[in-house]
User: Fold this.
Amino acid sequence: MSTKKTHYPEIPRKNLGPGWWLANRHYTVYMIRELTSFFVTAFSLIYIYQVYRLASNPGTYSQYLDTVRNPAMISFSIVALGFTLFHSVTWFYLIGKIQPIKIGRKKTSPLLALGINTVFLVIISFAVLQLFIVGK
Amino acid sequence: METETATIRVARYRPEKSEKPYFQEYKVPYRKDTVVLDALNQVKAEQDGTLAYRWSCRMGVCGSCGANVNGVPKLTCATFLHEFKGKSLTIEPLANFPVIKDLVVNIDDFMEKLLKVKPWIIRDKQSPPEEGEYKQSGKELDRYAQFSSCINCLLCYAACPIYGLNEDFLGPAATALAYRYIADSRDQGKKARFPIVHDLEGVWECTLIGECSVVCPKGVDPMLAIQKTKILGAMEAPKTMLSPEALKAILPRGGE
Amino acid sequence: MSKMSTVARFHALLWGVFSLGGFIAAFFLPILIYINNIAYPLGLWPVTSQDPTRLLVINQTVSTLFVFAAVGGSLFHGIFRLSATLAELGLKKQEAKITALGYAIIAVGLLALGYYLWVLSPNIIPGLAPPWSK
Assistant:
């Protein structure tokens, strides 16, 4: 056996570019799921701002409400609601995958977790409306 | 059985001949039961003996034959040619690893990580053989059994974009194996493994893309192992943060 | 004592809060967006004469706590995840700066939210009125 070893260069590994998530459907759905965080962040900041306006600038608060009624803002909110619900649905499914509950010998499926949590979401949403908004 | 012919495009890299990788096409006969590995073997035996690729058991238990087939990490011994009838079929080396030659990749990075997670039972004290075996119930076995199915084929590393973006990420298989031992009732090595898995380049890099579990040929579900490890870490963190050692480190002048 | 590094220990805790925030955002944020920004301006059920924010946070205890939890939890969750996502979208090199900025926004946001909610419902902390309250 020859003791001399010729080392040939390897093709080095290349880090993925920023468009990696367009390569297949799973990745793209994943990225849409993660981008729900943009809308979650946006509306958290919007509500903090709204509370600030109401508390410190009650005189100009009605100006803020004009922004709420602006069709562009309403459209953005509808889009945000869609993304936020997508977060809810994907979150419930992931929780179902990570923490299945053992019933006897069987484990709950993620779809079951999704279904049950969606029912909770509807109940909680109605409760919020009934307790704080309806009839006032 | 009927024999048909398929054209396969195989990525070639022959550094002793030229610096540039290229594709080479081969026509291979196939039947309903022909897998990609069979096609590669036919090429090497009868058409082009220079083709280099790894394989061993040809039945999905050794983990040697991983490759990217039409961009998807697969075991070539478990991928049937007839699925690609009428479509083009491209075989490339496993993604996210340096390429040594043709379809052979350098997996040193994973081997280092595998050693780091100490994939063996760690005991504070070994019981002497006279005391008998370490007993384990079926329930205790269930806690880690699926994660012990890992054949180190590295399809999960090829599929994971986090590993693709960051070579330092510990990765799915290594973490799944770490968890397999952490969850084993006979193991007492949680302390030994936590610094490795709970490193910022460990489980915390994972953002639940889940592709690792999609491509895993053995149903290991490394994504689940990573999440369970995160949960263990999150439960452990407050305990150690309130420990006398940690408080000493955080409070000014050692807590005086 | 497991020897997780200090940074990793903090990260583990923050991840726990992020997970909690994920539940909060999932259950509470959709209905907030619906009432405040869709039902109210479009006159959909439940139709209110006042904007719902006023109903939720002026001199209220329970709904104020709900708003704080919902908005605060969502903010933490959203920023944590958005920072990670930006790193995956090509900003990996700036990850440390983005994360630091994110935590700064969370801190300022939570403080501001808590303070202004307190101003709007001063009796929420019995016996203690905020300075400069209306």
